[in-house]
Amino acid sequence: MGDRGRMTAHKRIGRTLLTLVLLAGGSLARSPTPAQAQEPAKPAAEKAAEAKPVDTVTAEKGRFEVAFEAKGDFDPVDATVVQFKPEQWAQPLEIVRIVPHGTRVNAGDVLVELDTEKLDRAIADLELDLAVGEKTLEIARRELPVTEALQPLELAETERDTLVATEDLARFLAVGRTLAEDSARFRLKASEEQLKYAREELRQLEKMYKDKDLTEETEEMILQRTRFEVESGEFNLRRAGVDTDSALTLEVPRKEAALQDAAAKAKLLLEKMRATSALALEQKRLALKKAERDRVEALRKMRDLQHDRAGIPLKAPRSGIVYYGKQHDGAWTTAAVAAKAAVGQGVPVGDLVFTVVDPERVAFRVKVDEKDLHLLSPGLKGRVELVGFPDAEGAIALESATMVPRDGKVDARFAVTVPAGGVKPLPGMTGSARCQVYSRPDAVTLPVSAIFRDEDGRKIVWLPGKDGAAPEKRVVKTGRTSGGRTEILEGIAVGDVVRSSRP
Question: Is the peptide bond before 313 cis (omega within 30 degrees of 0)?
């Protein structure tokens, strides 16, 4: 063996020794404790499982119950809503007296008394209006036949007036205007001639009275009279001149214009009467019908007001307990009524609503979630505890349930029976109900989270694989579910371990 071969052999030996030393050191570092030295070696499959643990649950056996539990309120079975609903009166009335909420009353007791002064005054005013209206209606009834008889006469009269106006205008234009002008001029001429005659007579008298046979007194009297006649003639002439000018420039043109206007107006009135007389007559007929209808309406209003007045004071129709407001969909409107139910306060009378309930008969009403509908069945029975009296309870039995959901809930109503001497719930109180739907003392159950569905829709569980084997799928038949656990009818036995998650 050459030098190179010997060197290679030495290196191999060195590496072998180093490896042995390292292995020995590692063995010493990992040497087991006495307790560990006594544990048997675990199979490889279990070591692999410990490396990645799987959550499992065990099928248990024991009492299994399904119960319907809900909170609700107590409703009156026999109740009467009392409300003053005026037929006509709409103004607020002042409260004089009102019973407190929760008062026990007998039939006929006064619930609320109101000040009716305004209502009584309105009735008195309406009675007077009806009396006046009756007279007005009677006048209209009597006037209508007279108007119907007068219509043709008035039309004929208007036609005659139109004809007269037309003829007067034509006559004036043909003869009257010229005659009026000539008359004015002739009056002026007559005044001139009269003055001329008077002056000449005065002159003759003055000449004649120079004869000494007449006394001076007689002469003076005659002359004085004649001189006055001359003076009068002069005045009459002056006035005749003014009158003639006025007649020619004003009176005659004005008369012509007036006659023309009268003729035109008469024609228009005739046209108007011909066009509207029938309409006006029909209008009177319709006005009479409206007046008759208004009277009927006024009589109805009077009856309604009298009916409204007869409803005051508002009285209890039955015996029981008075509740302010009324119940709607399980809620009471008590607060809204109580806010207005104060003596001396004026309120719209329609806002005062009362409910008289029979406290001996109540029902328990709950709103059931849609997911719990399957728990409701005819004859379902249970117990109800009163919230206000924790130690008091009563028996309940399902009476009815509205199976059509609204907002994801349905209404269920239970009859309530309270033991003798027990606390009787009143309408408006609340309680908690529990009804046992199903019970089995030896049911096998699993958590809901451990049950799955396969591709075919079957309910299955997964059993952990043994010795590293794959998990096993098993079809199961289930019963009811409650409290997060499901009853297993077939496929799994007590003590079986299943996975709580899909593999």
Answer: yes
> 209: which 2 tokens?
């009275």
Contact 422, 408 (CB under 8 A): no
What is the Cβ-side half-sphere exposure of residue 389, based on CA atoms within 13 angstroms? Answer: 12
Residue type, 39: E
Residues whose CB is less than 8 angstroms from the CB of residue 318 and which lie 6 or more positions away in sequence, other chains included: 80, 107, 356, 358
The rounded distance, in Å, linking the Cα atoms of 354 and 340 is 12
* 104-105 β-sheet, strand order: 79-83, 353-357, 320-324, 104-105
For residue 441 the two structure tokens come to 């003392």
What angle is formed at CA 145 by the lines to CA 142 and CA 149, rounded to 5 degrees? Answer: 140
Kindly list the distances between the CA atom of residue 449 and the CA atoms of 375, 481, 485, 491, in Å, as whole numbers in the listed order.
Answer: 21, 11, 8, 17
Q: How many CB atoms lie within 10 A of CB 83?
A: 15
pTM of this structure: 0.63
- CA-wise closest residue to 93 among 417, 346, 451: 346
Q: What is the pLDDT of residues 304-319, one digit of tens each?
A: 999 999 999 999 999 9
Q: Which domains does the chain have, with CATH numbers?
A: 56-65+441-499 (2.40.420.20), 79-114+313-357 (2.40.50), 119-310 (no CATH)
**Spatial distance between the Cα atoms of 68 and 51, rounded to a whole number of angstroms:** 45
For residues 127 and 324, give the distance between their C-alpha atoms in angstroms, rounded to a whole number: 36
Q: Which two tokens stand for residue 155?
A: 């039309």
Return the minimum-mean-pLDDT range out of 106-110, 157-161, 371-375: 371-375
Reported as a single tens digit per residue, the pLDDT across 191-226 is: 888 888 888 888 887 777 765 555 567 777 787 888
Distance CA 481, CA 489 (A): 12
- Which tokens belong to 232? 């009068």
Lookup: tokens for 74:
């107590």
**CA–CA separation, 364 and 74 (whole Å):** 5
Is 421 buried (19+), middle (13-18) or exposed (0-12) by CB count in 10 A?
Answer: exposed
Q: Give the Cα separation of 203 and 282 in Å (integer).
A: 80
DSSP 292-339: HHHHHHHHHHHHHHHHHHHT-SEE-SSSEEEEES-EETTEE-HHHHHT
Q: At what angle do helices 177-208 and 216-246 cross, to 10 degrees?
A: 160
Q: Which residues pair with 67 in a beta bridge?
A: 436
